[in-house]
Amino acid sequence: MAGNAIDQTRRMLSLVTYLRERPGARVADVARAFGISEDELIADLDVLPLCGTSFRGGDLMDIDTDGERIWWHNPDDVAEPLRLAADEATALLVAARAVATLPGLREGDRDALLRATAKLEAAAGEAAGASSRLSVIFESEGGVFADVDRAISERRRLWLRYYSPARDEVTERVVDPIRLFAVGRTYMEAWCRLSEARRTFRLDRVVEIKLLDDASDPPPIELRDLSELSSALVQTGAEDPEVVVEVGPGGRWVAEYYPHDSADELPDGGLRITLRAPDPGSLRRLALRLGRDGRIVSPQELADSARDAARQALAAYGE
Questions:
Q1: Of the residues 4, 90, 125, 274, which has the maximum number of CB atoms within 10 A of its CB?
Q2: What is the mean pLDDT of residues 239-263?
């Protein structure tokens, strides 16, 4: 949920100050100070080197760790006063206004963001005028989030059309929402009236959603531990079939979106990605989405199937 991302952002901002004042800090001590596990701290440290003082790259934080201590090699460079170009100020203002509209954002965080935005507008001068003519709307997942959040608070049922990649089909369901949570993506746990069982739905796969007047009445069930649920959502089994996909530079997002065993660099700037899927056929849609930006290498029958589906799609356009 939005709160999780904001909590991490707040922690990482504090982490920057903490590490600057403690060169060579021990990983265990820092994790204990922030009340997180060492694995969570290492995950934050993997992100920090991608941050810096310019949207164009350069001036990034040079932070590394040997697993025992943390070293920040250029704190003085990054600490120099920030000067934003007009396009950088515009992008930052547009993004800040968009985030401020996200449902589920705590009011205290929203107020703090709006105050920071006002200060940035004053400092940006004429650039702030250009940003006011632009807007970003989180149409898909943000709108679904708002409906689910309202259904939970008002104890109402939801009707939705949901895409299942495993079966490559869209089904209609009536559900009693139980809770929202985030594991990389945002999910809704609910009691599904179609299957008469507890189900987990990924919000970005909800095609259409409607808030019903019927009262939500899920059966009494024990909430599952989120750590176990997270593992089930993001991990595949070692016995699942292996699929190899090659993507060009425009398809590198696949490595961020899909859990994978390996992602090897290709000479053209693309990746050779090896992943596992309980139902490899569900990746046929991925191949069609990638188009020229990627192809399935193996298994051969899946590659042939994706190629046939592409031909059929092209033929339909020709007709």
A1: 90
A2: 79
